[in-house]
Write a structure and sequence with these properties.
The protein has 106 residues and is of the alpha/beta class. It has one domain: Rossmann fold (3-Layer(aba) Sandwich), CATH 3.40.50. It is built from 5 helices and 3 strands, in the order ααβαβαβα. Helix 4 links the parallel strand 2 and strand 3. The longest helix is centred in the last third of the chain and has 13 residues. It starts with a helix and ends with a helix.
């Protein structure tokens, strides 16, 4: 996904291998968008989403959740995710999700 994001002009990206590291990184840096996997070690995507939405400094950041399971989509959106992608997804689907969260005023 990193190559796709760079091809779309998003050249400044940060990566974390699990939700706990992602939360630490988010609190230490300026972030415009979060794209998270549902399944991650130590802290999964839903727990990361909940932690972000409860944090006044992070809750405004658009959050895209991704998973291989379609049924996770409604759960993610109900929990506050701004978009949901079913893996595998195409670069066009990623671009469309990015446009949705940006155009929705996020």
């Amino acid at each position: 996904m990193g190559m796709e994001l760079r091809a779309m002009g998003h050249t400044e990206t940060s990566w974390a291998t699990n939700g706990r590291d992602a939360l630490t990184l988010l609190k230490e840096s300026s972030t415009d968008l979060i794209i998270s996997a549902w399944s991650m070690p130590e802290m999964d995507g839903p727990a990361l989403l909940k932690a972000c939405k409860q944090d006044p400094e992070l809750r405004h950041i658009p959050f895209i959740m991704m998973s291989t399971r379609p049924e996770h989509g409604l759960q993610a959106l109900d929990a506050g995710a701004d978009a949901y992608l079913i893996k595998p997804f195409s670069p066009d689907e990623l671009q469309e999700a990015l446009k949705r969260v940006v155009s929705s005023g996020q």
